[in-house]
Amino acid sequence: MSDLGRTLILVGLLLAGAGGLVLLSGMRGWHWLGRLPGDVTIRWSGGVFYFPLATCIVLSVVLSLVLAFFRR
């Protein structure tokens, strides 16, 4: 059970770090993540639809590489 506890603590720290980066990016004007070419934005008179397709793909690749690194 100690391995499960360590894993949960590590995941929690990673999530807290990611949350901190998101907060800092909003405060300092780092808007590169979330406005990549390939993100879909559709505007019409009633509103806006935004789907971050390219951002999702980039985050998926990065997280896959990080998790593969920690598995070894």
Walk me through the structure:
With 72 residues, the chain is of the alpha+beta class. 64% of the residues lie in helices and 14% in strands. It contains two helices and two strands. It has a two-stranded antiparallel sheet. The chain is elongated and about 55 Å long. The model has no long low-confidence stretch (mean pLDDT 81).
A few lines on this structure:
This protein is of the alpha+beta class.
The 3D shape can be described as elongated
Would you report the number of β strands?
A: 2
Biggest sheet, open or closed, and with what strands and sense? 2 strands, antiparallel
- Put simply, the count of helices is 2
Strand order of the largest sheet: 1-2
Fraction of residues in β-strands = 5-15%
List its traits.
72 residues, alpha+beta, elongated
Q: Which secondary structure elements does this structure contain, and how are they paired or packed?
A:
Elements: H1 2-28, E1 40-44, E2 47-51, H2 53-71
Antiparallel strand pairs: 1-2
